[in-house]
UniProtKB/TrEMBL annotation:
Organism placement in taxonomy: Bacteria, Pseudomonadati, Pseudomonadota, Gammaproteobacteria, Oceanospirillales
Polar residues bias spans: 1-15
Record's protein name: Polyphosphate kinase
Cofactor(s) the record lists: Mg(2+)
Location of the Polyphosphate kinase C-terminal domain: 378-542, 549-720
Organism the protein comes from: Bisbaumannia pacifica
Amino acid sequence: MTTLHGPQTSPSAQAPQRGESAGELRLNRHRPGIKAKPLPAPEAALDDPALYINRELSHLEFNIRVLEQALDPAHPLLDRLRFLLIFSSNLDEFFEIRVAGFKHSLALGRDESGADGLPVPQLLTEISRLAHEQVERQYRILNELLLPALEEEGIRFRRREDWTPEQANWVADYFESRIQPVISPIGLDPSHPFPRLVNKSLNFIVELEGKDAFGREGGLAILPAPRSLPRLIGLPESLCAEGIKEYVFLSSMIHAHAGEVFPGMRVKGCYQFRLTRNADLSVDPEAVSDLASALRGELLARRYGSGVRLEVADNCPEDLADFLLKQFELEESDLYRVNGPVNLTRMMAVIDDVARPELVYRPFTPGLPKALNRGGSLFDAIAGGDILLHHPFQSFAPVEDLLAEAARDPEVLAIKQTLYRTGADSPIVGALVEAARGGKEVTVVIELRARFDEADNLALAAKLQEAGAIVIYGVMAYKTHAKLLHIVRRERGGLRYYAHLGTGNYHTKTARLYTDYSLFTADPVLCEDVFQLFQQLSGMGKQRRIEALLHAPFTLHEGLVAMIDREAEHARQGRRAHLIIKCNSLTEPKLIRALYRASKAGVECDLIIRGQCCLRPGVPGISENIRVRSIVGRFLEHTRVFYFHNDGQGEVWGSSADFMTRNMFHRVETCFPLRDKKLAARVRKDLETYLVDNCQSWLLQPDGSYLKQHPGEAAPISAQETLLYAYATKA
C-alpha cells in the first residue's frame, strides 16, 4: 500500500521531484507544471515574459492542490473523497472552457499567447502532459488509498468479479426492470451513422459478432447509458454483509448484461467512454436583440460542441480508441485512459447517502454578531451602525431575513438587487416575489450568462417577471458580477436608504461552503453610491458620480493601481509600507507590474491567492518582497479583500472582483471601503490569521511550484479552524 506522507518538509525546502515510485502519491511531492525559466536580472523590464507564470498552467496547479487534499489525513475520509471528486469536476470545466477555447483559437489561426509568451501549441502540449499525469495519479489515489480505506470503514464498491450469486441475481433483475426498458443501442452501419453524443455522457462502444435478424454482420455498436439513471446503485441491506454499505456502478451492470441488449449476437468487448465537448457559450452582442432567447438556443448547442477530450477504459483496445478519436476529430494527446469509472464526479452521491457523521467534518452553527443577536428589526440594527458578516463562520440568514422583512414592511417602497448565482428556489427570490406581488417597486439585475447557471437564471427571471418585478439583464457587453442590494424605506416623513454589499453570491448553499464577507450599511454615502450604480445599470447616460465605491469597468482598475503605487511612494519616502491582497486569481498584467514596482520600492506585499497566480514571487531585485500563498481547506476561500497600510491610515476594501482582466475591464464590479474602523481592524486581523496558517497553506515558489507548509516544531495553525472557533456559535 502506498503511504500517505513523506517526511515533513521545511518551508524553505525545494519541492521534491516526481518520479519516485513510492512517493508519487504523497502529499506535496510533485514537480510544477510550469517550466522554470532563468530568472531575469533586477533591471529587467517588468513586462519581461520570464516574470510571468502561464495562467492555464497555474490553474492546473490549483486543481492539483485540490487533489492533494485527498491525501491529507487531517481531512475526514469522506471529505478526502469529496476533494478527489472536486478535482474531476474542476478538470471537466477546465477542458470544456479553457482548453476548448485555445483549440478553437488555433482552428481560426489565432495564437493568443499571454504575458508569459508561451505559444498556444506548446501550452496545449504542456496541459496534456500535466493533465495525463495527474489523472493517472487521481485514479491511483482512488484505487490504492481511498477505496481500501472506505472498505475498512464498511463502505464497499463491488466489482463484477466480486458479486455473490445473490447479488448477481439482484443485479440481473435490476437490469431487466430498470435499465433495459430505457436503454437505446445504436448499431453502426451505413444507415446508422455514428450518433451525436451529449457532452460528458456515459457511453459504451461494443464489439459484436454474428448476424442480426436482418442478416447484418456484427460490427460495432454504441450504447449510451440512460441519463435518467443513477450512476451508483446501493445494494439492498439484505445482500450486504452486516454493518457494510455496498454499491454497484451502473457501468458494471451494463457491462455484465450487454449481451442481453443484442440477443443472438456475441459481445466480444464492451468498453466505457466519455467525450468532453466545448461548453462555452458564444453570444454576439451586435447580433442579438433578445439575450434570453439567444441564450436558450446556445444552451441546446452546448450539449453538442466540438470534442476536446476523450476518456476511455484503460482496457479499451487501440483500434477502438483510434476509431473513437477519429469520430470526434481528436488527437492521441486528447485520449485519457482511466482505471475506473469515466465519470467519477457521480460518486458524490455516496457522500450524501452514507450516514456516517464521523467520516465527515463536524457540523457547526454559524454565529451572529451582537448587533443581530438582540432580536427586533434588522433595519433598526443596521441604522445603528455598519454590520459585517464573515461567511460561513457567521450566518448568511440575516441577508435572507433582511429581504423577508423588507418584503413585509409597509414602509419599504423599493428594492433593487443584483443576482449572479442564486437559484429559482432561493428564499431570496421568494422574498423578491412576495415584495413585487405586494406592490413594492422591485428591480432585479440578473446576469443570465453566469457560466453553467444560465438555465437557472432564465427560470428565476421568468419567475420574477410573472410576479411583477422589473427584470434587467445588465449591459450586453459586460457581465454584471457585482453583489449589491439597495432598499428604500420611508422613515419619519423622509426616505432612508439601506444597502448590502458582498464579496460572494446571493446563494444560500454556497454561503455554507465559501468564505465571503457581507456588509450591511445605512451609511448615506455608500447607499447613495449603490443607488447610482443601479440607476446606471438600468438606464442610460454618462458615467455617474460615485463618491466612495470603486467600480468596474470605470474606476476599479485605476483605483487599485493608484493604491498600490501609493504604498510604493511611502516606501520610497522611507516610511513603512505594507499591503495584503486576498482574492481568487491574480492574472491582470498591469496590476502585476504595479506589485512588482511596489516590491522594488520596498513594500512588503502579502498576497493570498487561492487559484491562478501569474505573478512570480521571490525574484531578486524585482519581487523579493512579495510572498504568495494559497489556502486550500474545508471551505472554498472566496473572499476578495484588500488592506493598504497607507502610512498608518490603514484602508480595508471588500470587492466582488478578482485581479483579472475580465473583472477589471469586461464586468460590472464593485469595491467598497470598510469605513467603520473597528470592522476594518477586524478584517485585517482575519487576514493576518491567514498569513500565519501552517496547516492548509501553500507557498508559491519562484519556479511556479507550490510548497505545502508544515508546523514542524511550531504550534499548528489552521486559519479556517481559527476563524470557525472565533465566529461560530458552536463548532
